[in-house]
Amino acid sequence: MIVWIIFIILFVLFGAVFVVGFLLPKTYTNQGNLVLASSPDDVWNAIMDMEKLPVSGSDQHHVQLISEADDPPAWLIDMGSTQLTIQTIESEEPHKLVRVLADGVVPMTAHYEYHLSPMGSGTDLTIQEEGFIDNGTWHVPIFRIMVRMMPGAGLKLYCQQLVDYLGETAVPIINKKS
């Protein structure tokens, strides 16, 4: 009898998570800011080094350049359970970079806009993240809850990895927009 009660409680809890997740907004926005001692050219080169500094952090298994030589850079990142496609859609070296990320399993896309401004001999970097998690798989409610409970977690991790890559000690500032 106790086993059935526990089973029913777990079923209701999991059901509640899925219902709440599906009811959450499909979009989210975060912004990350870093003041770095490195020059805009050095920061730009770090951001463009997808092999050593992928947006997926250390979760990637393999990073493959999939664009042609004359096309804007695009990568396929194998993360084991999914694949991410990262496409560069605008590039004004070393001041502005716009990329779009699409997940191969979860119906999720993200638009990243990087703004690099000279600040003395260093760089003021702002990264704007606009994400969209559509309906479609059982992953959706979980991801929607995650982006609400841990706003900007992925962006903060990427910013910290950028700081480490550059050998700096800057502290990322992440602002949840929505």
What gyration radius follows from the Cα positions, in whole Å? 19 Å
User: So what's the overall shape?
Assistant: elongated
Q: Low-confidence segments, ≥5 residues, pLDDT <50?
A: none
Order of helices and strands: HEHEEEEEEHHE
Spatial order of the strands forming the largest sheet: 2-3-4-5-6-7-1-8
Give the oligomeric state: single chain
Summed up, the helix count is 4
Would you identify the CATH H-level superfamily? START domain
Q: Bin the helical content.
A: 25-40%
Number of strands: 8
- Report on the biggest sheet: 8 strands, antiparallel
Would you give the CATH topology? Alpha-D-Glucose-1,6-Bisphosphate, Chain A, domain 4
- Estimate nothing, just give the exact number of structural domains: 1
Question: Briefly, what CATH class?
Answer: Alpha Beta
Using the 3D structure, state the CATH architecture. 2-Layer Sandwich
Separation, N- and C-terminal Cα atoms: 44 Å
Class based on secondary structure composition and strand pairing: alpha+beta
The pLDDT mean sits at: 90
Strand content: 35-45%
